[in-house]
Amino acid sequence: MKKRVVVGMSGGVDSSVAAYLLKEQGYDVIGVTMQIWQDEALDVVQKNGGCCGLSAVEDARRVAEQLDIPHYVMNFKQEFKSHVIDYFIEEYLNGRTPNPCIACNRYVKWESLLKRSLEIGADYIATGHYARIAQLSNGRRAVQTSVTAAKDQTYALYNLTQEQLARTLMPVGEFTKDQIREIASGQGLAVAHKPDSQEICFVPDDDYAGFIDREAGDRVPGPGNFVDMSGRVLGRHKGITHYTIGQRRGLELPMGERVFVAQIRPETNEVVIGSNQDVFCSEVFCDRVNFMAVEDLTEVLQVRAKIRYNHGGEDCTIEKLPDGRVRCRFVKPVRAVTPGQAVVFYRDGLVLGGGTICKGHDPVSVLNF
């Protein structure tokens, strides 16, 4: 009897080819597009891009027809709002810079989609991510880097559980992007040359602060002070939700030299300004840690760590602290370490684990700015 797999089809070329590859491998494939947009007004929904818009549903449906597989739309609006949008807003209000794609992967694309897929008799779910899943000698599963470093998406998948990995297929990880487009073109798929979505799907105009202003209303912190590293007031900022660590543009400070956001202090509504040197640090702490290739961290390990999606990674040592946080000590200082983003640990091409970059319990920021 064929194993049944539900493929999360976003209307893009990667998930479309994932569905094609799995059908060719003999699986009973069902295509599902997740309805996650929040606005019911048709003219608004049609403008949304990425995996949020009606165009995504239509593209996925056309591909499903071409592949002769069933296609359904499942409503995940509430799950997406609570786990992604609300989280995104709260993080910015608290002076952190979130990664909504990581939250969406963990709680919507896997936890919620997997639950519903199992309820309809599926054995697996699958996505079009550029990543692979490895079965390790210690009995655990881990996300493994894809064959193409240029499109590797393992950073955003570090938070998946062992149960989720055991029920997941990622066929696209064995190919480069060019090969995926060639496969799509060879099969005549309508999305073969569709551009990749670049923005956060629920903020299609990339105006994060404007989105938070509209959604959070009077909870949004107002203007406050720009201060230098010693606390001297330099001017006024527009509100902490407009800034992130390492930012240079849009500061509108006549300093006579290049300056950057070095810290955000929500408790005093201050944005700290420093030189380029001030946004480098060698020691990073993270909490909300998920281990993947190992069950837990029981000794100091040498790993390679990424502090943001497009970071190339740097060598560091990691150790677990008594309070559950992990301390990362980098061999070379890393730039613009940003609370709210993830730090992900790699060994031998496998995701060892990762966590959310945080501040420690000390009065002074543990990021050593």
User: Would you tell me the overall average pLDDT?
Assistant: 91
Number of H/I helices: 8
Low-confidence runs of at least 5 consecutive residues: 40-46, 360-369
| Class from secondary-structure proportions | alpha/beta
Can you summarize the main beta sheet? 6 strands, antiparallel, barrel
H-E order: EHEHHEHHEEEHEHHEEEEEEEEEE
* Share in helix: 25-40%
Provide structural commentary.
This protein is of the alpha/beta class and 369 residues long. Helix content is 25%, strand content 28%. Strand 16 and strand 17 form a beta hairpin. Helix 1 packs across helix 7. The N and C termini lie far apart (59 Å). The C terminus is likely disordered.
Question: Descriptors for this entry?
Answer:
369 residues, alpha/beta, globular, disordered C terminus
Write the layout of secondary structure elements.
Elements: E1 4-8, H1 13-24, E2 28-35, H2 42-47, H3 54-67, E3 71-75, H4 77-93, H5 100-119, E4 124-126, E5 131-135, E6 141-145, H6 162-166, E7 168-169, H7 177-186, H8 208-216, E8 224-227, E9 233-237, E10 260-265, E11 270-274, E12 280-291, E13 301-306, E14 314-320, E15 326-335, E16 342-347, E17 350-358
Parallel strand pairs: 1-2, 1-4, 2-3, 4-7, 8-11
Antiparallel strand pairs: 5-6, 8-9, 10-11, 12-15, 12-17, 13-14, 13-16, 14-15, 16-17
